[in-house]
Amino acid sequence: MRTGLVLAIAILLSGCVRLIPESTAPSGPVVTTPPPPVIAPPAPVTPPAPTGPAPTSALMAGVKPGPFVSGLGYSQADAEGALRSFIESCPSLLRREDTTGLTRPSDWERACEAAPRNRGTADTFFATYFETAIVGTGEAFATGYFEPEIRASRTRAPGFQTPIYAMPSDLKRGWTADIPEAERTGRPPLGRRDMNGEFVRYYERREIEEGALDGRAPVIAWAADPVELFFLQIQGSGRLRTPDGEVIRIGYAGQNGREYVGVGRVMRDRGLIGEGPGKYAGSMQGIMAYIRENPEEGRELMRLNKSWIFFRELTGDGPLGSLGIPVRRENSVAVDPRFVPYGAPVWLDLDRDVADGLWIAQDTGGAIKGPNRFDTFWGAGEDARQIAGGMSGRGQALILLPRGVVERHAGQ
Fold first, then answer.
1. Are 69 and 122 in contact (CB under 8 A)?
2. Is 272 helix (H, G, I), strand (E, B) or coil?
3. What is the pLDDT of residues 172-188, one digit of tens each?
4. Based on the number of CB atoms within 10 Å of its own CB, is 219 exposed (0-12), middle (13-18) or buried (19 or more)?
5. Which of 3, 7, 270, 367 is least enclosed by beta carbons within 10 angstroms?
6. pLDDT-derived band of residue 381, with 50, 70 and 90 as boundaries?
7. Mean pLDDT of the chain
8. Residue 282 to residue 302: CA distance in whole angstroms
9. pTM attached to this predicted model
């Protein structure tokens, strides 16, 4: 869910964000998909650089048995929260293909059948039905994301002038003329038809801010602060609070297909982040301070990020993750689904103790790539902003798989 929703951000700094994956729709109107997350720590941190060819699946990274689940030492409250999220994930576990290659839907049947009967005894549930697996080295890197809230109005009014767009009808997939026939493989890029019927790249951030979509895309609401909206777009979902007290939850619907640029990385490259006179903190707050104190330069900085996120209104009790179910505070984690099965429990033991414990893999994001890369979800509110924005944890990760799965892959 995974959010601005982002906002303090190691990911802004490293140039990678939990930016929502593009829709997997074929040519024609783009089909909406749930977000994904991402925001990160205040210092410019990046995961360790891999050596040799990067693995593309859990099996390629290597899988070996870990310690007994019963010895992990999680609390009953931690287990209860993870169990609730696991139960919500079970319908997906029982029907969708596991892209890690580790499990089959049938592997999850016993645990999913037993889970609803184990409320109150969640600690023993995980020890009974699961075993741990170490993927690759098991050396984990985790950031955090949350659900931000910004001020907005259903109607355009003084103080509310920045449109929050829903999906435009002319956003499609197709091949632009500058792409040779021989290179036209896979999904065509996102774009639109121009006035001459030629397929071209879709409008970038600068063009949209200058009115390219006026009257051409539905507006959900009008934001009070374009800077807050910028960070909410990076996160992928959030809440809008109107002057009359209405709270509108919005989630990722699609993206314009243009390049994402991490503004924190640009600031760092320009020598703007650091200590001393004229320097800004490497955090969301520091980036925002620079943009607000230097409005012209700040606007141009944001426009370097050509990506634009379109939203849809959400109903229910939480932002939606990649599984199409709500992500939960301190229970849901974004993963790379090539290395962690969606819906699987994950155990984290980090140098940031607040993130230690059981999580359920329910989301993904553009910055969440590779084995043992995680983005922890912290809900909404100021404490969520502070924890998620400062989350940069390293340590060990274990994937909990149904009993017998690790042995099945032994020696592969």
1. no
2. coil
3. 999 999 999 888 988 89
4. middle
5. 270
6. confident
7. 86
8. 16
9. 0.73
Long-range Cβ pairs for the range 65-70 (8 Å, 24+): 65/131, 65/132, 65/133, 65/134, 65/406, 65/407, 66/131, 66/132, 66/133, 66/134, 66/138, 66/398, 67/132, 67/398, 68/127, 68/131, 68/132, 69/126, 69/127, 69/130, 69/131, 69/132, 69/400, 70/127
Q: How far is CA 2 from each of CA 240, 327, 348, rounded to the nearest angstrom?
A: 18, 8, 16
Distances from the Cα of 389 to the Cαs of 146, 322, 358, 397, in angstroms? 8, 21, 20, 21
Q: Which pLDDT value is given to residue 412?
A: 59
Task: Please state, in angstroms and as integers, the Cα–Cα distance from residue 77 to each residue in 40, 80, 85, 102, 331, following that order.
Answer: 26, 5, 13, 29, 11
Per-residue model confidence as pLDDT tens digits over 95-115: 999 999 999 999 999 999 999
Q: Which two tokens stand for residue 25?
A: 């729709």
Mean pLDDT, rounded, for 257-284: 90
Give the phi and the psi of residue 56 in degrees, each rounded to 5: -115, 5
